[in-house]
Design goal:
Elements (H helix, E strand, L loop, with lengths): L2 H9 L5 E13 L9 E2 L3 E5 L4 E6 L5 E6 L9 E3 L2 E5 L4 E6 L5 E6 L17 E3 L2 E5 L4 E6 L5 E6 L9 E3 L2 E5 L4 E6 L5 E6 L16 E3 L2 E5 L4 E6 L5 E6 L10 E3 L2 E5 L5 E6 L5 E6 L9 E3 L2 E5 L4 E5 L6 E6 L1 H6 L21 H9 L9 E3 L2 E5 L4 E13 L1
């Protein structure tokens, strides 16, 4: 066997058999829950915590470089642009911070933030095109803001909370919200090009779209609270097909990889692989809890987190489990909800009379609600146990 083939086998996942192992490089403990994704630049990893602070950590060892107290109890995933960070908070503000010091360059105030319900964990991550920031808010508006000055250029008002990330492509902004609409707007002035309304469901008539669509080959794909995954023509907004999941919401934005879509389910407690053209399911992998965050491909593996505080690596070809990693919260509290076989403990119910207490117990497992972020060989993510983690997926065996 030649050396090149050996190298390829060591870093890729075969469609037949494979084994790998997650190993922790470092973790850093904040004093609050983390729902947003971690981002990195050349030197640091960045994330905000429910303790009201935004953190910059050395991405190699997790040592604190600086923190900036912004207040609030929830942050968006941050975005980077010209040595500045842009991050939104549930105080209804968008901040520009220096990556070097954490000093505040400016702050922009919307007309206010709000949560739809206790499952509305996310805020809109700012999207940047040239020197314009596009940012959604709980006041139902999408804002276009000058990145240098923080001054508003224009805004577009929808009919519901906007916590999805704006998607920018070819001079068009695609933005979705809790009013159940996906809007296509002119990026220059915010004028409406087209809008699409979801079907709605019996208990969720608005058919809310909590997260952003993805765009591939002129097709937009997105999940909703009306139990559907939609595929739309990006130019016209015409629906090409939809898949209805009988068990509940599809929160996570799908991942497109090798002609397939990968997305987790809420109450369906699964990861699904689906043909992107037809909407036909190829495989399902059962999990004992929800998946709200997006999946990624890393070293040929499908990697994603769950409310149960575990990060999973699956074979994307067949859905077989390759490895899993448990957060500190999951190690300490998993047994309070699940028995040795992974089933709910007697007496635990998801949506009983005291469902808020159940949700609190779930988050205490160190739920991973964010999308894993990869920089080099390292996977970074935040957890509801307050930790920021840096871990590595080591491929042990791959056989054709």
């Amino acid at each position: 066997m030649n050396k090149l083939l050996l190298v390829l086998l060591s870093i890729t996942i075969s469609s037949h058999t494979a084994s790998a192992q997650f190993s922790k490089i470092w973790s850093f403990k904040t004093e609050g829950q983390i729902f947003a994704s971690v981002i990195t630049d050349d030197t640091n990893a960045y994330a905000g915590s429910a303790d009201g602070d935004f953190y910059a950590l050395d991405k190699n060892n997790g040592k604190l470089q600086w923190k900036q107290t912004l207040g609030g109890s929830k942050f968006s995933t941050a975005s980077l642009h010209k040595q500045n960070l842009f991050v939104g908070s549930n105080l209804g503000k968008l901040y520009s911070l220096s990556t070097k010091t954490g000093d505040i360059n400016w702050e922009f105030a919307s007309k206010g933030e709000q949560d739809k319900d206790i499952w509305d964990y996310y805020l809109s991550q700012p999207s940047i095109n040239k020197n314009t920031i596009y940012w959604g808010s709980g006041d139902s508006c999408l804002y276009a803001i000058d990145a240098l000055s923080g001054k508003e250029l224009w805004h577009f008002r929808s009919k519901g909370i906007i916590h999805a990330n704006p998607l920018i492509a070819e001079g068009i902004i695609y933005i979705s919200g809790f009013d159940g609409h996906l809007y296509a707007l002119n990026a220059e002035d915010g004028t409406l090009i087209w809008k699409f309304k979801t079907l709605g469901a019996q208990y969720f008539p608005h058919g809310a779209i909590p997260k952003a669509p993805i765009l591939h080959n002129n097709i937009l794909y997105f999940g909703t609270r009306d139990y559907n995954l939609y595929a739309l023509n990006a130019e016209t907004g015409q629906c090409l097909w939809n898949y209805r999941e009988p068990h509940g919401w599809i929160i996570a934005s799908p991942l497109f990889y090798k002609h397939h879509l990968y997305f987790g389910l809420s109450d369906g407690h699964k990861m699904i692989c689906m043909n992107a053209q037809s909407g036909i399911i190829k495989w399902e992998h059962a999990i004992n809890m929800r998946v709200f965050g997006e999946a990624i491909i890393h070293k040929g593996a499908l990697v994603f987190g769950s409310h149960n505080g575990k990060l999973y690596a699956l074979n994307p070809d067949n859905g077989e489990l390759i490895s899993e990693f448990s957060t500190e919260g999951s190690k300490a509290n998993y047994h309070k909800i699940f028995d040795a076989k992974g089933n709910f403990q007697p007496g635990f119910t998801l949506y009983g009379a005291d469902y808020e207490a159940s949700e609190k117990k779930i988050l205490e497992m160190g739920s991973i609600l964010s999308t894993p972020h990869v920089d080099g060989n390292i996977i970074y993510f935040g957890s509801a146990d307050g930790h920021i983690y840096a871990i590595e997926l080591k491929i042990l065996k791959s056989i054709e």
